[in-house]
Design brief:
With 286 residues, the protein is mainly α. Helix content is 76%, strand content 0%. 28% of the residues are buried.
């Protein structure tokens, strides 16, 4: 068996383990001090956020791969007009700020949900994830095309073609899988962080903008929407009382636990993903 120090000796592994342990400790602390309705909201919001962000990774990877193969095939077959149209559409999507595009996507999905066209989480979560992936996947396309263009310039590409290997197999298996999967995986870690950030930001904006009559029938709870919850805002505002009374600090982790827990989960998750991505890149010398 490998020693624990070897298994978790790298920065990305240490941060991944730390994130799991901290989330577990926070859950046990909330289980003891937080009331059951608030605890249910925090747990549901955390799980929903992780599920949607995971779906964003899936949709981003699929969309990125499809458009990469499409552009590469059109470029190799010299279909310049079609290649120009697809590239123009990608650049159009890329020109829209991600948070603005995701906000409009969320507004459309929320409208469909309020009208009863979308009712279950099985329908709602994939649509929310797709709305985010639509404005993130061009980054994956850029990475994959950069890797393909790099290996096309090397001798092994033409050598494999001379040996009778299909170009699609060279691109998909030899370039993207065998020689680029580490780069793609590292990019997907960053995509997860982007998805969490965009989701929390947009959910917060939508929750603040909606009236109290609409809010109960809107989207399922996420960390972003919980941060805009009235109780959470009161909990966050209570931090200001520390400037006048430092002895009030312990009560933040017992009385005002919902808002503090949600804010901590968002910040610590984003910091952990950032360090996991950097540590993974350093370990694999990317």
């Amino acid at each position: 068996m490998k020693p624990i120090q070897h298994l978790f000796g790298h920065k990305d592994k240490r941060w991944a383990l730390s994130w799991v342990l901290v989330v577990l400790v926070l859950f046990l602390w909330d289980l003891h001090f937080l009331n059951r309705p608030s605890l249910k909201l925090v747990v549901s919001g955390f799980i929903n956020t992780m599920i949607i962000s995971g779906l964003v990774i899936l949709f981003t990877l699929v969309l990125g791969w499809v458009f990469t193969i499409l552009l590469d095939a059109m470029q190799s077959r010299r279909r310049e007009k079609t290649h120009f149209v697809v590239t123009f559409l990608l650049n159009l999507v890329r020109s829209i700020p991600q948070i603005v595009g995701v906000l409009f996507g969320y507004v459309i999905v929320t409208t469909l949900h309020r009208q009863g066209i979308i009712s279950s989480k099985m329908q709602l979560f994939p649509l929310l994830a797709f709305a985010m992936a639509l404005f993130i996947f061009p980054e994956v396309v850029d990475l994959m095309r950069e890797r393909i263009d790099h290996y096309r310039k090397l001798d092994f590409f033409n050598a494999m073609r001379v040996c009778g290997i299909r170009e699609s197999r060279i691109v998909n298996f030899n370039i993207l899988w065998r020689n680029s999967r580490i780069h793609i995986f590292n990019k997907l870690i960053s995509v997860f962080g982007i998805a969490v950030f965009l989701q929390c930001s947009v959910d917060f904006i939508i929750s603040v903008g909606l009236s109290t009559d609409v809010n109960p029938i809107s989207l399922p709870p996420t960390l972003g929407s919980l941060l805009a919850h009235y109780d959470s805002k009161q909990d966050i505002q209570s931090i200001a009382s520390l400037f006048s009374d430092v002895s009030y600090f312990p009560q933040l982790f017992t009385i005002h636990l919902q808002g503090v827990s949600v804010a901590f989960l968002i910040v610590f998750t984003l910091v952990s993903i950032y360090n996991i991505s950097n540590g993974y890149a350093e370990r694999n010398q990317l």
